[in-house]
Here is the input.
Amino acid sequence: MSSGPQIPAFALPALKSLGDLSSAQIVLIQDSREQLPLKFEHLPCVVRGLQSADYSIVGFESEFGIERKNLDDAVSCCMGENRERFERELHRLRGFRFKRLLIQGSRGLIEAQRYRSRLSPKAVLATLSAFEVRWDIPIIFCETPEAAALAIERYAFYFVRECVKRANDLIRGSQALQETITETKQPTKSHKT
Here is the structure.
């Protein structure tokens, strides 16, 4: 009996010209204040304090951030003092290149009001939409902790892969420029007829 789809190990593109970076391992960071930490199967994860977000990547702490909320926490962040505090958290993520609000649960559970609050589903969804627009932070729903962990691993992998590709393009561009400079400095041979 299969426990679900098999996910291949994450591996960055082979970029030998990057030296030590070509074999670098992606390491996730889980904020030390996370109450119910996720278990990651494909990438290593260290626990340390993060200024913003619940999950990030070593070396990209100010560029990659995922804020995770379970359904009840997400709903409580839509009202009163919790809303003000949560908006300050989202404000700190505004300059990140990659950011997400990951809600562990489903939109359907919000629509069915399957949470511990009297706040209407319409008000919750309207507030989440306002957060998404105001703070430019896409919201994703993952129904299980396993799905949430896998989503974070995939986002981290593709984010780092794009950074490595950019670094490789920089190296290639620099090498091409050096070759052009070398070619123009070589003396030209004159042909006698």
